[in-house]
Amino acid sequence: MLSIHCLFKKKKTDDGIRFVELDETDSTNRYCMDHLCDGLLIDGQPMRMVVVSAEYQRDGRGQGINKWESERGANLLFSMYCRPSWLAARRQFVISECAALAIRDTLATFADGFSVKWPNDIYHHDRKICGILIENRLSAGRLKDCVVGVGLNVNQLHFVSDAPNPVSLRQITGREMDCKAIEHDIVRRFDERLEMGERGLYGAIAEDYTSCLYRLGGFHAYRDASGIFEAAIVEVEDDGQLILRDRDGRMRAYAFKEVEFIIS
What we know:
Residues 23-198 form the BPL/LPL catalytic domain. The chain is α+β, with helices and mostly antiparallel strands. The protein contains 5 helices and 15 strands.
């Protein structure tokens, strides 16, 4: 039995991309997995991507056990479901790069100071504006399908959770934003980035991603299992590992959750 309970609003198609809008659901990522896992056929029509958005998520998820705070109707909560079967499993970090770049590049049209905090949070200076939760499924060494869940603070002015450094686009710009216009621009840019990947332009995607990294250049404070240290970002490898160089010149490689950025 499906765990999804939602009020369905409407759906529309835009150049091979179907937009499904819900009033409320527990998780747009879970909705995608439960309803779209048999492929990208909606009403008998083949789709390149399906985008599911909600005004409110009862169980909005971050990485691990984290929750995503969002005031009803104030922000963007959506998931992009696609089937990039052209992508080898060993290169699945490309999805993370494409999603992060799409969001960062859209936000950069409104203000300066946006960057990608490895692996795929979006920051405005030292404050978090967007989280991304990616769920990939593999088959025969390639991606079968993937869901890219996005929680983007757009118009929320007050945050009540214990998240240490949230910020919204409205707080940054001082004006109310059109959430749907922003969503459509992100989806368009993500689709374009996926097309670059399908053409094998992995190096260009990685170069753009690296150029947008939070704390790129200079030494900064980090914490790993051994304690606090200072290091500079060297690169992000194809599999998503972060390579740091500490002040002694030693290279340190980290998978996700193995190192923490210390932000004052």
